[in-house]
Amino acid sequence: MNATHFISDNFVLQSDIAETLYHTYAKDLPIIDYHNHLSPEQIAANKPVKNITDAWLNGDHYKWRAMRANGIDESYITGANTSKKDKFLKWAETVPYTLRNPLFHWTHLELKRYFGIDEILQPSTADAIYDKINTILEDKTPAQLLEHLKVEVVCTTDDPIDGLEHHKAIKALGIYTKVFPTFRPDALLLVEKDSFPEYIGKLAACSGVAIATLEDLVEAIAVRIDYFHEQGCRLSDYGLEEIYASEFTEVAVDAIFKKRLSGAVLTSEEATEFASCILNTLCKLYHAKGWTQQFHIGAIRNNNSRLLEQIGLDAGVDSIGDFPAAKAMSKLFNSLDRSSQLAKTISYNLNPSQNEVFATMMGNYSEANVPGKMQWGSGWWFLDQKDGMEKQLNCLSNMGLLSRFVGMLTDSRSFLSFPRHEYFRRILCNLIGEDVKQGLIPNDIEFLGKMVQDICYYNAKNYFGFNMK
Q1: Sign of the C-alpha dihedral computed for residues 311, 46, 415 and 108 taken in this order
Q2: What sections of 346-469 are H helices per DSSP?
Q3: Which member of 42, 212, 303, 337 lies 3.0 to 4.6 Å from 342 by CB, making a disulfide possible if both were Cys?
Q4: Pairwise CA distance, residues 221 & 462, whole Å
Q5: What tens digit of pLDDT does each residue of 284-329 get?
């Protein structure tokens, strides 16, 4: 593949209006990445990343899936005994075949923005690119990579029992990027898991609350929420197949909880009743703290049991599910709204056939003096690409208020993924520019520019209320 300067200044931008909106209003804004899976331990260590395979391929299930689809042997993807360079070369072999997959755009945006590389990554360029990148990475810490793209805020994804020592260490470093934890309590809901009783023991230990009853459990959870809040946390998150919203009574759930702690196996109805109670309780605690709650809904995970056993969780064998969503969302949100305990909420769907379902559901629970309280989140995971983002932006425009949207996030494990914000900003500016070209919206650059800036940065800054001191 012969091409240089593929990522031009006006990449994706197809009109003068789009170019002006991007270059004048969007391009230089800082980044607030309010949901990702970066390692706070790695940031706190403050050591150079050094090798592109570690920075780019380790844990990146997007690239793993592409390599598998290209017929690459698993030893070059997740194998422990394969050299870092050989893994990189196999990725370079795969890249030309990712044409029209978002990985092709992401890869070359990252090469250009972090390393000044214009060449297409492919076997003929791989050796030179590998050496050049590693020379640059030799002196680049994760904090420096974040600052390079003006990443102002990063919100990691953290278990309620996490001590957050790395977040404290990061704060002491005084780096440009503020790194805040996010409360991810999925393990508290999955009562049927074999590990649940042991997990409750760990929760008891870190909270200082002896847990024998539902009341004890809620007290321990509240202690951990207080602790996370003290460390700057302002968001929670869930990664669920579907929202739990079954009818429950606290008396019945207390009995279910005690039964599970005794080692007994629960029925599916009991497990759902327990999860519904805990989820409802968590949502009320978030509201009391002024947090935002996020729901990532709809993935069917660990489809390939062979790779799950070989590699473990996050092996890159998850896909889009077809779970019902509307009734449970309505039931949970309505219950919380009726008691005036519905926190600011962002919901993300993975099945594009449910775009309108999610967009319209969030419009049911607005609140005076809280603009954009209920958000339908950006294109997530398999929808985090040009077509998916455009569909999300168009659907949100049709069903809600695009102007109040809190914008993009990476949902990534890589410190090199932040050009995805640039990708989103270019797509947004181009979409608005096309509307102007067609006479669908006024050609008012100042107004449109402010709208773009709000979506790309200011809405998120105002919505989450991070303590930036």
Answers
A1: negative
A2: 355-362, 386-399, 419-437, 445-453, 459-464
A3: 337
A4: 27
A5: 999 999 999 999 999 999 999 999 899 888 888 999 999 999 999 9
